[in-house]
Specification:
Largest sheet: 5 strands, antiparallel
Order of helices and strands: EEEEEEEHEHHHHHHHHH
Number of helices: 10
Number of strands: 8
Distance between the termini: 41 Å
Low-confidence stretches: none
CATH superfamily of the largest domain: Regulatory protein AraC
CATH class of the largest domain: Mainly Beta
Length: 287
């Protein structure tokens, strides 16, 4: 059995450099804003009435399900704690850590790579798979919170085992889990369009004209399915990509033009409001 769980906190930065496993239980939860990480997230639901927005898709998550979320996917959780206690494991893994554990013949990032044809965010599992994943996560959590003999070795061993198991489960699934939305096609197309045209001029009116829909209809459906406005989503996507480019060494003075900001001042203010540091401070920190 896992040790005593923690409660939700707003922290979205890892304390460890390679990976971190959180075990949490909440009977009340404030609204969680749409956000993204610089690392992979593996979410395993133990109990709760949970719906998850990932980019433009809305998933109804059942206890025993796994969600796989890549660094470039904006996501948001919606729960109804009055119905059932919200209990889960959340694993954060740095991409470099997964690549280090992978081998020439075993790429452990495959199950979390959106460019892979078989990629899917949600995995339904058999009871036997659920039991194995739960037990491995419980052991890993215990190793991370204890100081037993071999404590510097076991966490990485268990993480490797867990990633292999999840990849095997993902490869066995023959059909993707359908999202629970209705009439979401145009929103999915808009999100895809933004992902490829973030550096260009984008507005609700321009997108509505491009996809031949009413801007009022698009605004309503986008808010319903994605959980934020079109304008706010575009801003978050641009900031997300700007952050990723700076992490790769692109200078802040070059990033703002590539990501569709009108001027450096607007980019500076938006970046600091979103991440709490200036673009140059972030660039220095990743160097």
């Amino acid at each position: 059995m896992p040790k005593e769980p923690a409660s939700f906190d707003t922290r979205q930065i890892m304390k460890r450099p390679d990976f971190e496993l959180q075990y949490k239980r909440d009977s009340y939860l404030k609204k969680v804003n749409l956000h993204h990480h610089d690392f992979y997230e593996i979410f395993f639901l133990i109990s709760g009435d949970v719906t998850y927005t990932i980019e433009s898709k809305l998933y109804k998550v059942e206890p025993g399900d796994i969600l796989l979320i890549s660094p470039r996917e904006l996501h948001q959780v919606h729960i109804r704690p009055e119905r059932e206690v919200y209990e889960r494991y959340v694993l954060w893994v740095d991409p470099k850590a997964i690549r280090r554990l992978s081998t020439k013949h075993t790429d452990l990032t495959l199950c979390m790579d959106p460019s892979c044809p078989r990629y899917r965010n949600q995995l339904h599992m058999t009871p036997e798979d659920q039991r194995r994943i739960y037990e491995t996560m419980s052991k890993l959590y215990g190793e991370l919170t204890d100081a037993d003999f071999g404590g510097e070795l076991m966490p990485e061993c268990l993480l490797t085992l867990l990633l292999v198991e999840i990849n095997r489960i993902a490869q066995r699934e023959t059909a993707p889990v359908e999202d629970v939305t209705r009439g979401s096609q145009v929103v999915s197309e808009v999100v895809e369009y933004i992902s490829h045209h973030y550096g260009e001029s984008l507005s609700l009116e321009e997108l509505a004209d491009h996809f031949y829909v009413s801007k009022y209809h698009l605004s309503h459906e986008f808010n319903r399915l994605v959980g934020t406005s079109v304008h706010r989503y575009i801003m978050k996507k641009r900031l997300q990509i700007a952050r990723s480019l700076m992490a790769q060494g692109v200078k802040p003075s070059h990033v703002w033009t590539e990501c569709g900001f009108g001027d450096y001042t607007g980019f500076y203010r938006a970046f600091k409001a979103e991440y709490g540091v200036t673009p140059r401070e972030f660039a220095r920190s990743v160097r």
